[in-house]
Amino acid sequence: MANKIKVWFDAEADFLEVRFSDAAGYEKETNHDAVMERVDETGNVIGFSIMGVSRFRENNPLVAELVTA
Question: Which Pfam families did the record assign (predicted)?
Fold first, then answer.
């Protein structure tokens, strides 16, 4: 579990990023086209990002599965 979670939202780009670790990693596709997971070199999820986050509201929730190793 992360000691600190970093959240970054860019309103102009409508982009949300959440990081559980500052470790080096890369973006990986998920089962939802708006969501990318950030994984480290061993495949552990260390964060995620959501593109077009404002389109997900109560009547249109975001459902994506992040796979943990």
Answer: DUF2283
